[in-house]
Amino acid sequence: MNWIIAPENILQEDRQRVGGKGFALALLVKGGFKVPKTFCVTSDTYHEYVSQTGLRERILLELNRKSFKDMRWEEIWDCATRIRNLFLRKSIPFEIEKELKEIIEAQFKGKSVVVRSSAPDEDAASASFAGLHESYVNIKGADKILDHLRKVWASLWSDAALLYRQEIGLDVKKSSMAVVIQEIIVGDKSGVAFSKSPNDDSQGIVESVYGLNQGLVDGAVEPDRWIMGRGNRTVISHTPAERTHRMIPDKSGVQRATLPDEVANRPPLNAQEVIRVFKLALNAEGFFKSPQDLEWTIQKKDLYVLQSRPITTLSSQKKDDSRSWYLSLHRSFENLKALRKKIENELIPGMIAEAERLAEVFLTELPDKQLAAEIDRRWEINQKWTNIYWEEFIPFAHGVRLFGQIYNDAMRPEDPYEFLDLLTRTEMASLERNQMLGDLAEMVRKNPSLAKDLAAGQYAGLDSQFLEAVDRFIEKFGDLTCAVTGGTQCEQTSDSLYKILLEMAAHPPTKTGQRKSGAKARLKEKFLNAFEGEQKKQAAELLDLGRSSYQLRDDDNIYLGRIEAHLLAAVREARQRMDDYQAGRIQQKIADELIQVVENLDHRPQFQSPYKQQPGDGFVIQPRQLIGQPAGPGLAKGPARVIQKTADLSEFKHGEILICDAVDPNMTFVIPLAAGVIERRGGMLIHGAIIAREYGLPCVTGIPDATFLIENGDEVTVDGYLGIVTIGSSDLRGNAKATGNGPLGIHSAKEKIES
Amino acid sequence: MESTEEVRSRLRDLCISQKLAVVSTQSGGQPYASLVAFVASDDLRHIFFVTARTTRKFAYLTKDSRVAVLINSSTNEESDFHDAVSITVIGTAEEISGPERENVVELYLSKHPYLEDFAHSPSCALIKVTTKSYYMVQNFQNVMELHVD
Fold it and tell me: CA A626, CA A621: separation in Å to the nearest integer?
C-alpha cells in the first residue's frame, strides 16, 4: 500500500484517495504549472491509522452517545474536543510511520512545509469544505510534520465540520481525509484569484497581500482587490487596502508582523503582475474546464500556484452561508481580546452602575402610575442587558474553548478537560456568594437556639448579628428564590434562605475542590514551558484570557440577575398593593395602568416546559440507564431532587442529586449540599458543570429527558466518568461488604468515590 | 470425533473471532441475560468482561457468582442454522484488581481498543469468569462438552 504518493504518480482512479485538493495539484503538476514540491498522504493512510488504533470505533461511539439532533452545539464541541484529543494521543503505527518518515525526510529535508487537508468529498461542486478543515503552515522536520498530519486528520471531526456534514447530509461513517504536504514558498506577495466573479460573469477578481497568503485566507490581513475584465484581461477597478500588516514565518508557524513603511504605501502587485496572476487563473480555468479559485504566491520573479479549486456554483453558495456561520463559531485570539476589553471596561461596569441606579429608586414611595412606568422602564432595561448578554457575553465563552485547544495541542493530556484546572478557583461571584452562605450556616451551626427559632419559624427575636449578616447577603445576592430568566416567582420572605441555611448547618461545611494550589502552579509552569520566546508570551496571554472568559461564564449571570431582581422587586411591590387592596388593607383603588402592566407581564411568551408529561398509551417507560455527557468525574448515589421551579430549591436536602433543566448561576448555592448533578442541557462549560467541578462533584449533562423521566426521591446514581445516570437501586459497592466475604471484592469503587 | 485439542482450537477460534457474548446471571431465581464485550484467555480458563458497577448484572454477580456465557457466530442469516457455532460456558465470576487487572485490561484493550475510556473508568469493574465447562453446538444440534479441570 502506498501511504504517500508524488503528484506525477497520481492516476485518475486515485482521485478519492488523494482528495480534491491533492488531485487538482497532481493535474496542475502534470499540466506544467509551477507548483511547489508536493506529496499526498492518501486516505488509505487515514483509514489504516484509525483502524489499527481503534479510533474508528471510538469516534463512532463518541458521535453516537446520543442522537446528533438532540445535541446542543456545546455538546458537539465537547465531542469534537474529545475526538481531537484521541488523535493527539494516538501515535501512527510503526510500519506506516516508518514509510512516511523515509519519504518526508528524503523529499523535505531541512525545508518548511504546509500540511493541508484534502478530504475526498472536499471541493466537490456540491459542497465546499473550504476553511472547515485545518491547515498548518511552516512546519519543519519529519516528526513535526507527522504530528501535524494527525491534527489535520482530527479536524475532520471538528464541531464545524461535523455540523456542516450533518447539514448537507453526508454520512460521517464514510468520512476520511487525505493530506497534502507542500514545500512552503515564502512569497514576497501572495493572494487569491477568481477566474470568474461570482457576481458578474464578464469579470474576474484578484486579491493580494504582502507576505504569505495565510493572512488573507483567515481574514487577519486586508487585501488589495482588483476587478478584472475577462474579455480584454485588463484591470476594471482597484480597491486598495489599508496596508498595515503581513504574515511571515516565525520559528514554528506564522506571525502577523507590521508592514515596513516603504512598502505599505504601494500595492503588493504592479499592473503587469496583476494581469500575470489573472492570466494564470484563466489558464487554470481552461485547463480544468471550469472557473477556478486559485491561491498563488510570487517569490522574486516566480509565480507559483499553491492550490486551485472550482468556484462553487450559485446554488451551493446558499449552503456556503451556513458554512460561514459554522466558521464563525470559532473566534480568533485578537477578536476575543477586543471583546474582553469591551466587557471588562464597558459592559460589566455598565451593568453594575445600572443596578446601582435602579437601587436608588424607592419603590414604596412611587404613586401607582409612576410605579407602572417604572416597571416598564425596568423591563426595557432588563431586556437591553439580556440582549447584550447574548450578543457579547456568550461569544466571549469562546475564550475558554480557544485556550482548551491550545492547551491540549501542547500538552496532550489524558483528560481532555485538564485545562479547566488552570481556569478554576478564580474569584467567581457565585463562589463568593456560597462562601457567605457558608458563613451564615456556620452561625446557625454554632447557635442551637438560633437554629431552633429558624426551624420553628419564629423570626421575631432572631439574633441581630445574624440578621445583619442576612441583610448584607440579600443586598448583595438577592433572596435566592429569583431565577435569572423568566422569573416572576420570587418569594417575599426569607423562608427559603433560612431553610437552606438550616440544611447546611445540619451537616459539616463543604469545601470547594481539594486540588492543591501547588499542583495548579506546577501545571501552569508545565504548560508555559511547552512554548518558547514570543509564543510563551502569547500562551500566558491566552491563559489570562481563558481565565477571564471562564470567570465571566458565571459572573455575567450574577450581574444580570441583580438587574432582573430590581425588575422583580418593582413587580412585587405592585402585586403587594393589589393584594392589600383586595384584602381591604388599603382603601384607595389601584390605578388601571398598574394592573395592566402586571397583567401584561404574566402574558409574556413562555418557553416550552421541559417538564412535560408523557402521553399515556398503556405502556409505561421506566428509565434505567440514561446516557449523557461526562462533565465532572466521580461516582455518587442519592435520592433525586428534581427542580421544576426555583422555589423547589429551598427543599433541597444534603446528599441529594440535583436534577434540573440547567443550573442557573443564581441557583448554584445548593451545590455544596448536593452529592451529584444531572442537567438536561449538555456541555462541559455550562455553569452547572463548572461549579460541580469546583466542588469536585460527579456531574452528567445533556440528558434531555432527565427532568421528566426522573422523579423526586428516585434513587439515582451519577457516573461522571462515563456520563451515565442509573435510576433505581444499584449496588455501587456490591454486597460483598455487607455480607462479609462475597466473591466480588469492592476495592476500587468506594475508595474512588471518596478519593 | 474431534480430538480435545481440535475442540479447544475451535473454541479458541470462536472466542477470538467474536467480540460480543451474552452473560447470564440470576437474582431470586430469575435469570437475567446481558450483552458484553469480552476477551478469553488463550488457555480458555478465563473469560473477561468489563461492566459498569451500576448495572443489574454487576449487582446480581455480587450476590451469586455463578454465570453462564453464550458466544456464537450467527449473523442473522438462514445459513446460521447449519453454519453457526455456538458455545455456552459455565463458570464463576469475580472482580479483579491490582496488577492482575492491569494485565487483563491490556489484553482486553488489544481486542477492544475503542473501549479504553470504559475499561479504565473507576466506575467500571473488570470481571473474570473462571470457566468450568464449555458446551459447543454446531451443525444445528451437534453438542460437544469440554470440561476444565
Answer: 12
